[in-house]
Specification:
2 copies of one chain form a homodimer.
Chain A lengths: L10 H8 L3 H9 L6 H14 L5 H8 L4 E6 L5 H16 L3 E6 L5 H12 L5 E5 L3 H9 L6 E5 L8 E4 L1 H14 L6 E4 L8 H12 L8 E2 L4 H11 L7 E4 L2 H13 L9 E6 L12 E4 L2 H16 L7 E4 L2 E3 L12
Parallel strand pairs in A: 1-2, 1-3, 3-4, 4-5, 5-11, 6-7, 6-8, 8-9, 9-10
Antiparallel strand pairs in A: 10-12
Helix pairs in contact in A: 1-2, 1-3, 2-3, 5-12, 6-7, 8-9, 10-11
Chain A binds a DNA duplex through helix 2 and helix 4.
Chain lengths: 338, 338
DNA sequence: TCCGCCGATGATAACGTTTTCAAAATGGGA
DNA sequence: TCCCATTTTGAAAACGTTATCATCGGCGGA
């Protein structure tokens, strides 16, 4: 049973034990060609006894087909990233694919190249790039031609097939909602973006201009809730700020804490709306109004697009879904009826 | 440049173009054996021109060395899991390894077996199992012998090398802290555990018995903050509950919301202490007292253990770290001086 | 000048599997 | 009974790389 040491049993070992030829074992295992019941049993018995497990490298070498897909992302712990990854993994697993994850820590060219090289040092069937921020966008540009690639992001695509969450529509809906509540304008605390086109900022800006109200300067917070917290404290001193849209829910929570510590009440004094639909948002006090996005579905759609690329040629080029505004407690009318 | 179609260039194509033999190309690429500068240049030029990329499957097949490690986990979105995964990935990437992730959704034998089979259908150098819950523990038992395996968990190991976060010590510290504040006893809202030995519950129980106070029944919440929220509402009606330790911070946040909605103030009426050190905890209102754990470090240590297994035989068998109690606003003395 | 040594190079084997192709076995019809 | 079609089986080739081994060249020492 516990045959340690030496080397893993090969198909030849199984064949010898079962008293059949090597190809017969292969046929039993892959099920590609029928084999007589009697031999099939002998082979399966031998497989069990030896604990034989096909060598994927050899199999991949001869078939040329890979069953591994690479995911490139800048971070795997943030809510949106982790959920998208989960969706990709689930869809891939159900299709018999394995997911390899490689993190791209910065958008510095050397680091990006190193990460891409590492990811591609292994034979992969395709690549999914989480293009939510600069590192993701940089990685996309460094992937070699001829490799099936899909990007998952919140904006429109450029070249490669994209699975998209329509950030712009979500941000517009949230901004329209706040304006409809009577707020004079809406401020925006931004997350990093993948390029010039920032879907969330675009939607926010578009809603404001369409309503013919002033567009205040964007407040950049990066990914850190700490920074949003500081912004919250700064904003607390300004009476003209009555509604804030945040690039994601973590930022919104940090911001609310900053406002709270500085004595501003949410939503009585300031309305705060987040983005993403973080599962903790509904337990927050006050519960967070947010633009809910189905990241897991984004991941599944990303893999589906990639599957289309791998299979028949008639693959879809994009897959888009609209987010949904979820109104909870952190938003309301402005303090002085606007 | 963009040579699509046909098949990827092989080392033979490079050799022919550079006018050298196949092994010489291999030597240039791997750097294993010195090659004359003139030939090296020719080879590198040919590599560039053809866009040659070594076939990892062939390489893996002949060397027998794998540069892929598999991670088995039941979920990749929860804070502890995601952070541990991040630590593993980081350490692996720095060592030139790639991380494959396979999710085990339930502890049902068939599902576990399928996931393990999928993960091992690819040749891997070793496996890290996130053994925080039943699916992880089940996976650990289904891995074949002879494969380097490390478990990362919050409890002690059994057989395979373990990287550990000392849950027991953390839970004891938190419970001692609450008892020291004057609480008559401390209730415990539990997360799922990987087996009979639940580190957090053990530490909590040990601290209570050592202080000779009553040990209330464990309140099981699973992983869902929703369930903790309900428990919070239930507990709100009980005056004897003045201090609650939660199995993780998400649960604590759900619980606090439930208490809040039912009119109980935290920490004035009830003290709540979480577990894990979720980054959002400090922004919560009230900011969450918690037992902070360094999951990323746990991941790095897991990989280090695995590296020891892969390299020389004198590998460490365990690696343990103690968590740290971080006192914030959600805990304080009981309402009526105890 | 010759011998032996060392470094660079190339031919060939090996890794473990699937695929191709031919051979053997089986079955059915005349 | 014989022959052909069909199914099952096995031998050998192929995948792309690295490892092994022998060969070739140059160089230093006698």
């Amino acid at each position: 049973m516990a045959r340690s040491s030496t080397r893993a049993p090969s198909i030849a070992d199984v064949a010898k034990l079962a008293g059949v030829s090597v190809p017969t074992v292969s046929r039993v295992i892959t099920g590609s060609v029928p084999v007589s019941p009697e031999r099939t049993d002998r082979v399966l018995a031998a497989v069990r006894e030896l604990g034989y497990r096909p060598n994927g490298a050899a199999r991949a070498l001869v078939t040329g087909r890979q069953s591994v897909i690479a995911v490139l992302a800048s971070n795997t712990t943030r809510y949106g990233y982790a959920s998208t990854l989960q969706g990709i993994e689930e869809a891939a697993r159900l299709a018999g694919f394995i997911v390899m994850i490689t993190v791209i820590e910065t958008d510095e060219p050397a680091a990006v190249q190193a990460a891409v090289d590492l990811a591609l040092s292994h034979p992969v069937a395709g690549v999914v790039v989480l293009k939510f921020d600069p590192p993701g966008a940089a990685a996309l540009h460094r992937l070699p031609d001829g490799l099936p690639v899909v990007a998952a992001s919140g904006g429109r695509g450029d070249g490669v097939p994209h699975a998209v969450l329509d950030d712009t529509a979500g941000a517009m809906a949230a901004t329209d909602y706040l304006l409809g509540l009577g707020h004079r304008t809406v401020h925006y605390v931004a997350v990093p973006t993948s390029g010039r086109r920032a879907g969330r900022a675009t939607g926010w800006k578009r809603a404001l201009t369409r309503a013919a109200v002033e567009v205040p300067p964007v407040l950049d917070a990066g990914w850190e809730p700490e920074r949003a917290y500081e912004i919250g404290r700064e904003l607390a001193g300004r009476d003209d700020v009555t509604a804030v849209l945040c690039g994601n829910d973590e930022l919104a929570m940090g911001l609310m804490r900053g406002l709270h510590e500085a004595g501003r009440r949410v939503p009585a004094d300031v309305s705060v709306v987040g983005f993403d639909g973080h599962p903790m948002g509904r337990f927050w006090t006050p519960a967070l109004t947010t633009v809910e996005q189905d990241f897991a579905d984004l991941g599944r759609r990303s893999f589906a697009l990639l599957g289309g690329l791998l299979g028949a040629g008639h693959a879809a080029k994009t897959s888009s879904a609209a987010p949904r505004l979820v109104v909870r407690e952190s938003s309301g009318p402005p303090p002085a009826a606007g």
